[in-house]
Amino acid sequence: MTKRMFSSRLHWDLRPNHLARALEARRRSGAQILDLTQSNPTRAGFSYPAGEITGAFGDPRALVYEPAPAGLPAAREAVMEYYSAHGFVVDPSRIFLTASTSESYAWLFKLLADPGDEVLAPRPSYPLFEFLAQMESVRVAQYALVYHDGWSIDTDALTSALTKRTRAIVLVNPNNPTGSFVKRGELETLVALSAERGIALISDEVFADYTLEPDTERIASLAGVEGALTFCLSGLSKVAGMPQMKLGWIVTGGPSVLRTAAAERLELIADTYLSVGTPVQHALPTLLAAGENVRRQITARIHRNLADLRAATGSHPSMQVLQVEGGWNAILRVPRTHTEEEWCLDLLENASVLVQPGYFYDFESEAFLVLSLLTTPETFCEGVRRLLQRL
């Protein structure tokens, strides 16, 4: 009877997985867990300019409701300045404010796809797209990222995955968790393919400020792309380390005719929801400025933890830290003497260390463990030490 009451779009198994149940049991027993999966910057020991941030919400303009579907002009200009500082010219008319990157995806799936249409998403990647797409009655097909001393897009496999119902290709730049950026040659292929097939490019760039390895072939952002309809996504969650502020954005790009048509329709969607709060929009210039210091702290942290991880694993030939160019995660290849789940459960139960298995991110083979570089250095180093002891 229950199944008949609710939408078939919510078809997932809602029961906790094996690892979640084991973690809850360990915590109930009083065990002190070394969490190497930390992804919340507000819980990772960084120093936030509290007075500056809270003071930004004292603006009396926040008491007046001014519905602006695409976002208040001053807030959109603040986003424009962010891109200008990164070398990109983005007119405010191309910017749409949202409550989060997840909402940005939802709007774009509404904009681009009809029920039953498809979007292509990378594999491995963060397990989000299937949930968001399914809620819009859109299907997700995957294209592979392959590893050969570094990650790259299998463009042949991507091309083969396209169908008549493909409406968009999602790029995560840099990818989560592989930390790989889109390269110039890959982008040229994708732009040509998108223009030819009438497919949009959605570029999730939330981690773009966090680079770990230099590469002249790297594409920092698709904000300057003109050959195909593009949408660049980012927001305060990663740019300023402030996920609690709930403000993201979409930057439209591509041929002017397509861009204008997309903007007209996006404004209608935005006007239907009007989801972004007035206080955070007025505070945005201050929050972006305050976030620069937080971003520097995060950057220093991820560099330090990655260096420590490489140093600790360097003498273990059975393990390998995969190349990572950006983002907040590192991937450790471990012996296939156990499954990823068995490794994770063993580490949790016998070393009180929590890591994530690669299959959480749809890795196609075993065995990989995913570690967050955002973790406090003391916890990270001790967790890695215990991990290596168990391995």
Characteristics of this structure?
391 residues, alpha/beta, Aspartate Aminotransferase, domain 1, Aspartate Aminotransferase, domain 2, 2 domains, 8-stranded mixed beta sheet, 4-stranded antiparallel beta sheet, 13 helices, 40% helix, globular
In short:
The protein is α/β, with parallel strands linked by helices. It has 13 helices and 14 strands. It has an eight-stranded mixed beta sheet, with helices on both faces. A four-stranded antiparallel beta sheet has the order 10-11-14-13, covered by helices on one side. A two-stranded parallel ribbon has the order 1-12.
Structure explained in plain terms:
It is a single chain. With 391 residues, the chain is an alpha/beta fold. It folds into two domains: 16-47 and 292-390, Alpha-Beta Complex (Aspartate Aminotransferase, domain 1), CATH 3.90.1150.10; 51-290, 3-Layer(aba) Sandwich (Aspartate Aminotransferase, domain 2). Helices cover 40% and strands 16% of the residues. The protein is built from 13 helices and 14 strands. It has helices at residues 2-5, 18-28, 50-55, 73-85, 101-112, 129-135, 155-161, 184-197, 236-239, 256-273, 278-313, 340-351, 377-390; strands spanning 34-35, 95-98, 118-123, 139-147, 151-153, 166-172, 200-204, 230-235, 248-253, 320-321, 329-333, 353-354, 356-357, 368-372. The strands form three sheets. The protein has an eight-stranded mixed β-sheet, with helices on both faces. A four-stranded antiparallel β-sheet has the order 10-11-14-13, with helices on one face. The chain has a two-stranded parallel sheet with strand order 1-12. Strand 6, helix 8 and strand 7 (200-204) form a beta-alpha-beta unit. Helix 5 (101-112) packs across helix 6 and helix 12 (340-351) packs across helix 13. The longest helix is centred in the last third of the chain and has 36 residues, at 278-313. The chain starts with a helix and ends with a helix. The model has no long low-confidence stretch (mean pLDDT 96).
